[in-house]
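Supplementary Note 3. Input sequence used for the single-chain structure prediction.
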Amino acid sequence: MTRRSLLPIAVIGGVALGALGALVATRAGRPSRSAGGRRGHRTARNLRLATLGARTGGSYATHRARRLFADAEERRQLDTAFELKTAEQVTEALGHMKGALMKLGQMASYLDQGLPEHVRTALADLQHHAPPMSAELAAGMVRDELGASPEELFAEWDPVPIASASIGQVHRAITRDGRAVAVKVQYPGVADAVAADLDNAGLIFAGLGQVFAGLDHESLVGELRERLLEELDYEIEATNQTLFAEAYAGHPTIHVPAVLPELSSRRVLVTEMAEGVRWDELLTWSQQEKDLAAETLYRFAFGSLYRLAAFNGDPHPGNYLFRPGGRVTFLDFGLVKHFTPEELADFAEMIRHIVVDPDPAAFRASVERIGLLPAGLPVTDEEVLDYLGHFYEFVAEDGVYQITPAYASETVRRFFDTSGPYAVMQKAANLPPSFVVIQRISLGLYALFGDLRATGNWRRLAEELWPFVGRPPCTPMGEEIDRWRRARAADPDMEATLV
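The predicted structure, written as discrete structure tokens, is reproduced below.
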């Protein structure tokens, strides 16, 4: 694996896969503020957590391998034997498989096109699979949160989870009034585990300051902490998801499942069940269908940003379900960033100076004022434009452009590879809080587009979505959306906010 391939893994998300050993050592050996007895207890506990976490991860890999050669009955027995049956077991597993570290593994699996395929495949497994809670533990969480067992709350309840991820797992159920729903149940102890990872993230980012001298790591960690702690509160997620569901109600290609607030709480979230195929199957579809799916993903990201002033900041493949014709269901609204008018105006100013009416001096002045680069760097305005212009390359010209894996990999290198010609700017660059989550577009969404080899006239599509340009619909999908928007605006019963 090359140094370039390792760089993104070692930095993104606030906790580093490449720094996992350092993180464990930090947890185990960091001096305690309390007396020696508590220090020794914490050291022993953290060492035990690290050991058990690694053991859990390794045994789970073995478990999944054994399932491949087992019949249905044997698989059920193997699964039951491996289930995490107590909160303590879950907490131990969090040290390696769940929480903030697992979220980083999920992102790395689709982010860096330079990773060896066997590494990407192993990490990709984190998008859909993780050691699950036992049926009894999941039911206990529901009972604690909602005051009754799943069998009492629902007409039907499937104790076998249909998905397990970084902070919770999902079960099928049918409500008493006959609606099929997905019930997301948070793992017990995950909040403490994520908080511990975030406590150590500051130390990791402080160390990165030796390479990225311009990085304001305290502001960066503060923004990550705020967003990730919000993700642990399913009531916040329910509010975010309802915002998107109402804004896109009846949309031709974008679907957001409705929330059932009467069956939801801080650690249990119930939403409508959605249909569609997963990312791996989409990759087998025709290029036309891939392009339509990419258009919908693009419209959702930038339409939401500029019309709702909100961005769903977790664009990994496990959060989408696909149907033909570009129809996409969007799942998981735990990591949502809401923007102020001033922050949106900053984005628009940069776009005007680099895309709509290119002006190298004005663009440099914008990025310096916003805080992406410090003033006075010994580089020319044209060099600044060349360095940051890559991120706008596919919308720079009015013409058909295919986003490739090579483009996505270069996007990652522009952030992290300080061995190239842009080292002066990379080392001095900063990421203001308003840019932390939005960079998931560059580092996540475009990587997915590279896998799809998504093709289209992105300039015209962008100008349709940029409110400061307002181009008329430029695709058949855009025309259909425009008809939907006009019909919605004419309906006195609909909300005024349109996307």
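The chain has two domains: 3-208, 275-499. The radius of gyration is 23 Å.
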